[in-house]
Fold this protein.
Amino acid sequence: ALRANRAQLAAPLAALGAARRAMLAAAAARPFDLAALEAAMSEVRRATGALQAAAHAVMAEAYARAAAKP
């Protein structure tokens, strides 16, 4: 189900990748800025949740289609 619906997951997956890269950049920044790192970590959590929600929606639709089959 997830492979068949890659298009629905592409944007949330890309957003999570970007958030992770920003978090790593904030962690490596000099001078170190704790507030920037915490903000980047918060964005990773948000993006992770958005990707998980999108994946769950795709899975729920697939289960519903499978359950409707005789």
Notes: The chain has two helices and no strands. Residues 42 and 51 are 14 Å apart (CA to CA).
